[in-house]
Amino acid sequence: METWDAIRSRRNVRSYSERAIAPEDLDRILEAAWRTPSAGNQQAWDFVVCTDREQLAQLARVFRAASHVARSAATIALVAPKSDDAQMRDLIQFDLGQATMSIMLAAADLGIRIPAPRRRARYGWSTSSTRRRAMRSS
Amino acid sequence: METWDAIRSRRNVRSYSERAIAPEDLDRILEAAWRTPSAGNQQAWDFVVCTDREQLAQLARVFRAASHVARSAATIALVAPKSDDAQMRDLIQFDLGQATMSIMLAAADLGIRIPAPRRRARYGWSTSSTRRRAMRSS
Lengths: 138, 138
Known about the structure:
Two copies of one chain form a homodimer.
Chain A: H1 3-9, H2 23-34, E1 46-50, H3 53-60, E2 75-79, H4 86-109, H5 119-126, H6 128-136
Antiparallel strand pairs in A: 1-2
Helix pairs in contact in A: 1-4, 2-4
C-alpha cells in the first residue's frame, strides 16, 4: 500500500473479525516497531505479542479500558522500564509513542485495523508487576 | 512510495542539500502530523514550520544540540503545553512521539530525509518561553 494511503486509512477500531493474523504479518509489524528510532538508541522497550485467546483475556484485565484486547486477534504489549526520573520518563514515553505509530502504520499497510492504545492501559502495562504478567503472556 | 519502503528508508541525517521543500510537500507532512491520534483526541500540540534561513538560525540556538536546524531546508517545531502533572506529561510526550513518527514517515515517503529530533532540544521547545520564541519563527 502507498504510504499516504496507510497514513490516511489508519483508524481506531475496537471490533474485530475472527480471522487470525498471519505470522509473517506479525513479524513485519514487529520489524517496523524495532526499526523505530529511540532516544540515544536506547531501545528501552520490549514488544510482546499475545495471540492466545486465554492469555488475551488475562491481558484484557490488566486495565479496565482494555476489554477490547480480549477480542483481538493479537495484541502487542509495549513493555518499558518504570523510571522515577522525569526526563528519562519523558524519553521513554516519547519513544513508545514513536514505536506505537510505526506499529499502527505497518498494520494499516497490511489492511489490519488496530486501535490506538488506551493511554491508562499503557501505564498499567509499564509497571513492573504488569511487566511480569505481560511477559507470561508471550 | 510503498509504506514498507518508507519505514525501511527512514534514516537520521544531519547534512542537507540546498534544495527547498515544495510547499505542497510541507502541507502533506503537516497533514500526516495532524492526522496522528492523540490521547483523548486532545491534540495538545502546535506544528510550527520554519523555512526562513534567518529564523532557522535563531531556532538552532534554542538548544546546543540543534545546530543542524540552521542548515535545514525546513524545520517543524512541535510545541506543546508544559505540565507539572506527571500523567499529563506522559500523555503529551507519548503523543508527540506518535506525531514525530508520522512526520518522519511522511517525509521519507516524499524522499525527504530528516533527523530524529534530539531529545533535549525537544524539551527546550516545549517550554512556554520557547513556545513564544518558536511561534515568532512561524
